[in-house]
Design goal:
- An 8-stranded mixed sheet has the order 1-2-4-3-5-6-7-8, with helices on both faces.
- The longest helix has 18 residues, at 298-315.
- The relative contact order is 0.16.
- It has helices spanning 9-17, 33-42, 100-109, 129-143, 145-148, 162-177, 199-203, 212-223, 261-273, 290-293, 298-315, and strands spanning 52-59, 65-72, 80-86, 113-118, 150-160, 184-188, 250-255, 278-283.
- Helix 4 crosses helix 6 (162-177).
- The two termini are 18 Å apart.
- The radius of gyration is 18 Å and the shape is globular.
- The chain is of the alpha/beta class.
- It contains 11 helices and 8 strands.
- Helix content is 35%, strand content 17%.
């Protein structure tokens, strides 16, 4: 496993003692993705936090769509702010269950509800299917706010890695389609730019998690021959958006040692230049998905505390330290 000289020493020692299994997508035939998905789903995963009610819903419509809701049991019937959450997986892998521990901790510690979307995956369902599912789930949460016990005036969108990119795209789509209104976008190491021309996208041909080749694979699965061309719309790759004005306030974070570093930094700066109140955090010595892979170490715990504080502030709650970190498996974009 490559160890960058800037890698956080505590995390470097943990990785050396217990190297994670690599996920190699480069050259993997699309017909073999189903087996990889099944293998990943069978891995032991951290369960949801205690005190959170988890419920699956199957949305009606021509395209089946499952969403998984998380709600603090202690909240009772009180109307809660809601984070619509989109999991990672490079557009080709994983499901809401991947993030059970993470988002249930958000629900419990940020005093909110979470709606996690089982969006369709590429390449079986290329663009625009994934973002259409995400936007459809956002509309469902707004339309069903009363029976779900949600405050329709406090809806946020968020995600990690591929899900972070889809969250940014959904925010653009909601702005351009006239709603639902969003008060916040919570973008953790988001996958934003199909062009893969930044310095960091070229630098990390080897990485602790999610090297350049995996990223090229995910974008090609989503966009096919459009990848890297002038015809890619912003709802597929939000870095392509020419106008970022009128979007909700944002939090963007990314690790120093990952493919997405430069595109995330540039997107955050462009949001600020467009008048969007934005907080940006570059985690020093951190790799892609570090907070989920090594949740008990110092830097990941710091990131987890920051995420909870950010959500509580954005959604209207008073900040308090989390009882535990997100503890989710490390995302694959």
């Amino acid at each position: 496993m490559p160890h960058h000289p800037n890698l956080d020493p505590e995390m470097a020692a943990a990785l050396a003692a217990d190297p994670p299994p690599p996920t190699v997508l480069d050259g993997l035939p699309y017909e073999e993705l189903a087996a990889l998905r099944a293998e990943r789903a069978a891995r032991p995963a951290a369960p949801p936090a205690e005190g959170v009610v988890v419920t699956d819903h199957h949305l009606p419509g021509p395209t089946p769509l499952r969403v998984r809701t998380y709600r603090p049991r202690a909240a009772g019937a009180r109307a809660l702010p809601c984070l619509v959450w989109l999991h990672g997986g490079g557009m080709v892998l994983d499901s809401p269950e991947t993030d059970d521990a993470r988002v249930s901790a958000y629900a419990l510690e940020a005093d909110c509800a979470v709606v996690s979307v089982d969006y369709r995956l590429a390449p079986e369902y290329p663009y625009p299917a994934p973002v259409e599912d995400c936007y459809g789930a956002l509309r469902w949460a707004a339309d069903q706010a009363e029976p779900l016990g949600l405050d329709p005036g406090r809806l946020a969108i968020g995600g990690i890695s591929a899900g972070g990119g889809l969250a940014a795209a959904t925010a653009l789509l909601a702005r351009d389609s006239g709603g639902p209104g969003l008060i916040f976008q919570f973008l953790l190491c988001p996958m934003l730019d199909d062009r893969n021309t930044t310095g960091s996208s070229r630098e990390f041909t080897e990485a602790v998690r999610w090297p350049r080749a995996n990223n090229l694979y995910g974008w090609a699965a989503l966009l096919g021959p459009l990848t890297g061309s002038d015809d890619v719309p912003p709802y597929a790759a939000p870095a392509r958006a020419e106008d970022l004005s009128g979007l909700p306030p944002a939090y963007v974070d990314v690790g120093e040692l990952e493919v997405f570093r430069d595109e995330c930094a540039r997107y955050a700066l462009r949001l600020i230049e467009a008048g969007v109140s934005t907080e940006f955090h570059l985690w020093p010595g951190a790799f892609h998905g570090f907070d989920g892979m090594l949740p008990r170490l110092a830097l990941p715990r710091r990131a987890a505390r920051e995420q909870i504080a950010v959500l509580r502030r954005a959604l209207g709650g008073a900040s308090r330290p989390p009882a535990s970190g997100p503890g989710a498996p490390a995302p694959e974009a």
